[in-house]
Amino acid sequence: MNQSMRTVFRAGSRLAGHPRVWPAFLLLGGLVAVTAPITTGLSPVLDVLCRGLGQGVSALAVVAGVHRHGLGGSRPWRLMRAAVVLAWAATTLGWGIGWVWLHSAVSMELYRLGTLAAYGLSLVALVFLSLQVRGVRWAGLLDGGIICVGVAMPLWALLLGPAVGQGDRPGTGFFLALATPVIDLFACGVIARMALDHDRAPWLRLLSASYIVLFIADGAYLLDQVADRPVGPAATVGWLGWAVLVGAAALHPSVAGTRRERPAAVCGRGRARIFLALALLSPLVSVLGQLLIHADLTPHPHNGIV
Fold this sequence. Notes:
The chain is mainly alpha-helical. The protein has one domain. The protein is 78% helix and 1% strand. The protein has ten helices and two strands; from the N terminus they run H-H-H-H-H-E-H-H-H-H-E-H. It has helices spanning 2-16, 21-40, 44-68, 75-101, 105-130, 138-164, 171-198, 202-226, 233-251, 269-295, and strands spanning 133-134, 262-263. It has a two-stranded parallel ribbon with strand order 1-2. Helix 2 packs antiparallel against helix 3 (44-68) and helix 6 packs parallel to helix 10. It is globular. 39% of the residues are buried.
């Protein structure tokens, strides 16, 4: 049994190194993610199978890609691999089997805790990836923090603040919905800073797209929670899309270059323009957004969020 499993794993690892595997995986996985709202709406069983199998195949792609490209000794990719596997296990076991089929409240709490742990592991993995530079390593995190603060101001003014002000919410469920966009925000800030160093590497483009999609999905899920409605199609597509894009990034041949340290990006006009735009536009968007929200005199149940 063990010998057959090793044989299957080696075959999958060799297949992962083929240059046409990652676009095929991205195309098929994207198709599954886009059609997931239709499939999951038919029955709870199909909902569990779609999300469980989708994230499971993506987790296998990350494991095979890490092994194929010699990243097993890389701490960031070990953490990313653990995050994707943990997210799949929490979704399949905690949410799918425990909550949907067995209606166990304990399993639902374990699903939420496992999901938060997976988010935390992926953020730590991104931080370690951003530190793989020669020179002053922590300067990149400072730049990422500046980007996070610049995006956080309108995010709080237009989304998180109104959501918190909607009244009392149930404990861990609303906390999960509120915490995940915040973690996504930090992740996007770190990735934006990494993009300045990696010179638009293909694997980083896929990874950046995955966290942008995840941020949109978690924001949509927060709106669903505030409105007391079921999980919408945007959240479902985004969660599966994140897993597919991370799997495609791990399968891309260019990811093998992350084993080596890279020189830190030289400060130039492009980076100065980004930081200046954030410093000027972030407060402006926050203030104008609040003015537009309060300018509408027609009462709406969720005026502050919309």
